[in-house]
Amino acid sequence: MLKKRHLSFLVLFVSFTLIGCNTNRSNDQGGLELNLSIQIPAGPNSWVVNKTSMTSNMISDSEIKNWTDLKTVVRTYFKTDTSGKLHLGLNLNVPEGTSRIKVTLADQTKIIKTNASESQTIDIGIFDVKAGYNVIEMVGIEKSGPVVATISEVLIGGTATEGNIYFIKDDFYFGRRGPSVHLTYELPEEKEIEWFYNEINVPEGEDVIGSYFMANGFQDGYFGIQVNSETERRVLFSVWSPFDTQDPKEIPDDHKIILLAKGDGVTTGEFGNEGSGGQSYKVYNWKANTSYKFLLKGVPAENNSTDYTAYFYTPENNKWNLIASFRRPQGSRYLKRLYSFLENFVPETGNISRKAHYNNQWVYTTDKEWMELTKAKFTADATARKESRMDYAGGVNGNQFFMENCGFFNDTTPINTEFIRTSNGAAPNVDFTQLDMPKN
Asked: In 305-375, which residue ranges form alpha helices assigned H by DSSP?
C-alpha cells in the first residue's frame, strides 16, 4: 500500500513537472501542431503606439528589443489575400526571469507565459482572420526580469496564408516610411509652360508628423509643405543639381545650383541623400482644412541654364511670398513633367495614415494663356511596386484629386490608374507684375 502511494506521488510529480516545462509553448489547440512557415521580421514590421522616452530604441532593423515598460503597446502589421485560420507564433527570448504577454489579433486574445532564455519559437495559437491588413497587438502583463522579451520574428501559417502575404521584407528604412504616391498631370501638347499653379488642402487630422504634401513637382525639383515636428512646419522648395551624387560636396562648380534670390525668413542651403542640389525652406505654421496656393516659374536663362522661382500664397494676408529663385546649369528649358506627390519621411509615423486634396491645377504658357490641368496618372514608388506596403491610394472627388498613404488601410489604388477631375473653369487671379521678381 505504501509503494502504491509512493508511485502515485511520483506520477503526479512527473506530470506537474512536464506541465511546468511546457509553459514556453501555448497548448490550447487541443494538441494541434501549428504551421508557422512564414517568417515576418519583427522589428521592421512593428511600431510602438504609445511612445515614451523608454521606447525610443525598442524597434531595430532586426527585432523588438529593450522592451522594459509593461504599459508599452507594440503592433505588428501584415496583409493576407484570404480569410481563414491563421496560425501564430513568435521567435523570442526573455533574457532574465519569466514574462507573461497578452497577444491580440482580430479581437481574439491569448496570453503566453515564458522563461525562454534562448531564442525559440513560442506557439501563440490559432486565430480567425479576414483578408486585408491584420494587426497583432502585444502588451506585457508581468515580468520578473528587466525586459519583457526580445522578439526577432513573427511566424504565421494556416489557411489564411494560402494567398499572397504582404509585409516589409527588405529595404527596411523605406518600408517603414511607407509608400510614396504621385499624380503626374497631363500637359497641353506643343505648348511651352512658364508657370505652374496648384492648391493643396490637408483635412483635419491628416497633417501627421513626417508628411510632405508636395504640390508643384517638375523635372528638376519640388515645392510643397511639410510637418516637421509637433511645433514646426515648413514650406520647402528644392532644385536638383544635374550632377548625380548623394553628397553635395562632390558637385563640381559648373554643376552647382546657384541661389538668385530668397524671400523674407527663408533659409537656403544644400541637400543630399536623395540626389543633391539647392534647398530653401520657410518655417510657417500652415493649418489643416485650409487651401494653400503654390506658384512656380521655370524659364530658360543664360549659358544653357534654367531659372526656377517659387511663390507661396499666405491667406491670412492675401499675399504671394517669394520662397526662392535658383539657377540650374547644364540645361535650358521651360517647365516639364509636372506632378504632385505625398510622402512620409519619418519611419516612426509610417503606421499612421495621411491624406491631402490637390485642388486646382493650371499652367500659364508662353502664349500668355492659362490652361487647366484636369487629367492625372496615379503612380507609387518602389516600396509599393515591390509590394512591401499596400497602403496607398489616389483618386478624384468632384473637382479635386486626392492621395493617401501609410496607416495600413485596405483600399489600394492600382498603379498607373488615370483620373479626370471636374473642371473648375476659373483661371487663377495672379498679377505677375506684383510678384517679387529676382534680379538677374
From this structure: none
Q: What are phi and psi of 280, to 5 degrees?
A: -140, 150
Q: Can you give the residue ranges of every domain in the chain?
A: 33-167, 175-434
Cell of residue 66, nine digits: 529593450
According to DSSP, the residues that pair with 297 across neighbouring strands are 195, 309
Residue 27: per-residue pLDDT: 41
Rounded Cα distance between 183 and 216, Å, is 11
Which letter, b or e, does each residue of 258-283 get, where b requires 16 or more Cβ atoms within 10 Å of its Cβ? ebbbbbeebebebbbeebbbbbbbbe
Q: What is the third-level CATH fold of 33-167?
A: Jelly Rolls (2.60.120)
Whole-angstrom Cα distance, residue 264 to residue 30?
71
CA–CA separation, 308 and 221 (whole Å): 9
Q: Taking the chain, what is the end-to-end CA distance rounded to the nearest angstrom?
A: 110
Q: Which residues of the chain have pLDDT under 50?
A: 1-27
The three grid cell numbers given for residue 333, joined into one nine-digit string: 528649358
In DSSP notation, 238-279 reads EEE-SS--S-GGG--GGG--EEEEE-TTEEEEEE-SSS-EEE
Q: The pTM is what?
A: 0.91
At 142, which amino acid appears? Answer: E
Beta carbons of 271 and 248 less than 8 angstroms apart: yes
pLDDT, tens digit (0-9, with 9 covering 90-100), for 302-330: 999 999 999 999 999 999 999 999 999 99
Using DSSP, state whether 186 is helix, strand or coil: coil
Alpha-carbon distance of 265 to 426, in angstroms, equals: 32
**Distance, CA of 74 to CA of 168 (rounded, Å):** 16
pLDDT at 419: 98
CA atoms within 13 A on the CB side of 142: 9
In sequence order, the 6+-apart residues with CB closer than 8 A to the CB of 267 are: 280, 281, 282, 283
The length of the chain is 440
Separation CA 16–CA 371 (nearest Å):
81
DSSP state, 438? P
Integer Cα distance of 152 and 94 in angstroms: 12
* Rounded CA separation 8/107 (Å): 42
Query: What residues does 101 pair with on adjacent strands?
Result: 112, 140
